[in-house]
Amino acid sequence: MEKNRINVGIYGQQYTIIGTDPASHIRLVASLVDERMREISSRNPSLDTSKLAVLTAVNAVHDYIKLKEQYELLEKQYLQLLKKDEDGNG
Q: Quick one: which H or E segment has residue 83?
């Protein structure tokens, strides 16, 4: 698969990101990271960039875990509905 090499700006720094995802996806990810860093920085202006980056990563992983838990719960509920439907109509 072809790798894309995309230059993006995150929190005032330029980065080259290499990946197989479309350039638009890579830019979206970079934009969301930049947005989250700026949001956290506005609430905690004394944080240095390293601490800000770690806090941003912690927040992102927290969000990911919450979404994964919600997905798994919905998947379980969906499978239970399918089973109930099969039992009721079978």
A: helix 49-89
